[in-house]
From TrEMBL:
Its cofactor is Ca(2+). InterPro entries: Alkaline_phosphatase_core_sf, Sulfatase, Sulfatase_CS, Sulfatase_N. Keywords: Calcium, Hydrolase, Membrane, Metal-binding, Transmembrane, Transmembrane helix. SUPFAM superfamilies: Alkaline phosphatase-like. The chain crosses the membrane at residues 172-194, 200-222, 264-284. Belongs to the sulfatase family. It comes from the Eukaryota. The gene is ARSL. This is Arylsulfatase L.
Length: 562
């Protein structure tokens, strides 16, 4: 615990998540007319990372990498067949039990460890109560929030993740079976076929069952995935949206009061700013940027409330605060002429795109009054995976030596005692497929980006895959580039100008060095079960959490927040 006393480390607080639409050029948190004053204040008095990237462009793999300090392909928190995130609470996939999170190490060092908000890294393996992937099995000693994720289907929104698709499939099967039942019945009545009435009856019954299921599938999803837990107990199923924001803030304040006299780690994982953009009445219609702006402004207010709570408990000067996002804004979350998924500024692409900057470039702020220099801006490449070794070593723990840790300790860079980031190369995956890599050529001060695979935007000339939920990672709708695309991010952060041997004298040298680094990186990978592939990502009724006898999953076990 030497670092604990030497650097006055009393607590570490990690509020997450961040919108992508506050970026202005390379200064990702500057706005001419601030609609995020609390986040801007945090940045003004903290250290800003302007080349901060996530290890994946979607939440489940990105969060796995954040907590473990490892590319998600190492833990198996990826797919190979298009299932980009965990699809159901009642699925068996999740963060493997043999993975080590920074919360687990800090807990072993005597820290109180809490997670408040979204988890989305799995829950059960073999039964509805084994909770093998639960936060409490991954180093957190307190959890309050959603074991799954906020989604449009929670509010039966027009933008749907799975409800509309399931309804369409069920309606199609209903029509097929109804046609079969009618055909068999007509054939029997006119004596064209000689069968018993049983096939007719069973076909009709199955058709009615499918039609009924189609009518109720939206409500079933809401009850199956959109609920709150406190530790191992379901407290609200389904969740009541207008209660959630005050409940989360109440839980944060309570955690700080309980643990202010001991070292703690608090991971606040906001349900904002994800569709359906649940916003309390106090913020609806307040922003000039529509519902998305309302939701962002409410999240900013929540950040302010959390920082005020630190002040009230006398913890500000002894608390390291980190603020970031798990990925970029979702361009495809568009309905009519309204954009609900955010905006990525000058950066190309968005959520779900493994290589383009718009999907992986995220805000990064560290604040530690009296220790970290206020207003410092770091333009070297850094990663969410760097949080793992940084907080582990601050807490006096040891980074595991029995596995590859891809993150690097950020403290020397944050303090200014190191001139450059320890990352020379960073790899950018889309599912298990490597789409891009970046090379920080320190002696030239150049940041190169090489794209091996890119998605085909739809329609042609668009900047996203409209008509789909996210862009694909493989198959006919991606392009394998030979030679790969080369960009100089230090001069072209928008990735607008492809460099060629004719325009860049170092083209072949850069390609050779990056491809060598990719080969060396791939030699460090070991085969592991893919948690998001079909077997781990199917809904299984025996894994479905339910606060009553299944399928009567309904309860409200706690009073309204004070």
């Amino acid at each position: 615990m030497e670092l604990h006393f030497r650097y006055n480390v009393k607590s570490i607080s990690c509020p997450v998540k961040m919108l992508s639409g506050t970026r202005d050029r390379d200064n990702m948190l500057h706005l001419q007319h601030s609609w995020t004053p609390n986040i801007d204040h945090l940045a003004e008095f903290g250290v800003k990372l302007t080349q901060h990237v996530s290890a994946a462009s979607l939440c489940t793999p990105s969060r796995a990498a954040f907590l473990t300090g490892r590319y998600p392909v190492r833990s198996g928190m990826v797919s190979s067949i298009g299932h980009r995130v965990l699809q159901w609470t009642g699925a068996s996939g999740g963060l493997p039990t043999n993975e080590t999170t920074f919360a687990k190490i800090l807990k072993e060092k005597g820290y109180a460890t809490g997670l408040i908000g979204k988890w989305h890294l799995g829950l059960n393996c073999e039964s509805a109560s084994d909770h093998c992937h639960h936060p409490l099995h991954h180093g957190f000693d307190y959890f309050y929030g959603m074991p799954f994720s906020m989604m449009g289907d929670c509010a039966r929104w027009e933008l749907s993740e799975k409800r509309v698709n399931l309804e369409q499939k069920l309606n199609f099967l209903f029509q097929v079976l109804a046609l079969v039942a009618l055909t068999l019945a007509a054939g029997k009545l006119v004596h064209l076929i000689s069968i018993s009435w049983m096939p007719v009856i069973w076909s009709a019954l199955l058709a009615v069952l499918l039609l009924t299921t189609s009518c109720f599938v939206g409500a079933l999803i809401v009850h199956a995935d959109c609920f709150l837990m406190r530790n191992h107990t379901i407290t609200e199923q389904p969740m009541r949206f207008q209660r959630v924001t005050p409940l989360i803030l109440q839980e944060v304040e309570s955690f700080l009061k309980r643990n202010k006299l001991r070292p703690f780690l608090l991971f606040v994982s906001f349900l904002h700013v994800h569709i359906p953009l649940i916003t309390t009445k106090n913020f609806l219609g307040k922003s000039a940027h529509g519902l998305y702006g309302d939701n962002v402004e409410e999240m900013d207010w929540m950040v302010g409330q959390i920082l005020d709570a630190l002040d009230m408990e006398g913890l500000t000067n002894s608390t390291l605060v980190y603020f970031t996002s798990d990925h970029g804004g979702s361009l495809e979350n568009q309905f009519g002429n309204t954009q609900y998924g955010g905006w990525n500024g000058i950066y190309k692409g968005g959520k779900g795109m493994g290589g383009w900057e718009g999907g992986i470039r995220v805000p990064g702020i560290f604040r530690w009054p009296g220790l970290l220099p206020a207003g410092r801006v770091i333009g070297d490449p850094t990663s969410l995976m760097d949080v793992f070794p940084t907080v582990v070593q601050l807490a006096g723990g040891e980074v595991p030596q029995d596995r590859v840790i891809d993150g690097r300790d950020l403290l020397p860079l944050l303090l200014g005692t190191a001139q450059h980031s320890d990352h020379e190369f960073l790899m950018h995956y889309c599912e298990r497929f490597l789409h891009a890599a970046r090379w920080h050529q320190r002696d030239r001060g150049t940041l190169w980006k090489v794209h091996f695979v890119t998605p085909v935007f739809q329609p042609e000339g668009a900047g996203a895959c409209y008509g789909r939920k996210v862009c694909p990672c493989s198959g006919e709708k991606v392009v394998h580039h030979d030679p790969p695309l080369l960009f100089d991010l230090s001069r072209d952060p928008s990735e607008a100008h492809v460099l060629t041997p004719a325009s860049e004298p170092l083209f072949y040298q850069v390609m050779e060095r990056v491809q060598q680094a990719v080969r060396e990186h791939q030699q460090t990978l070991s085969p592991v079960p893919l948690q998001l592939d079909r077997l781990g990502n199917l809904w299984r009724p025996w894994l479905q959490p339910c606060c009553g006898p299944f399928p009567l999953c309904w309860c409200l076990r706690e009073d309204d927040p004070q």
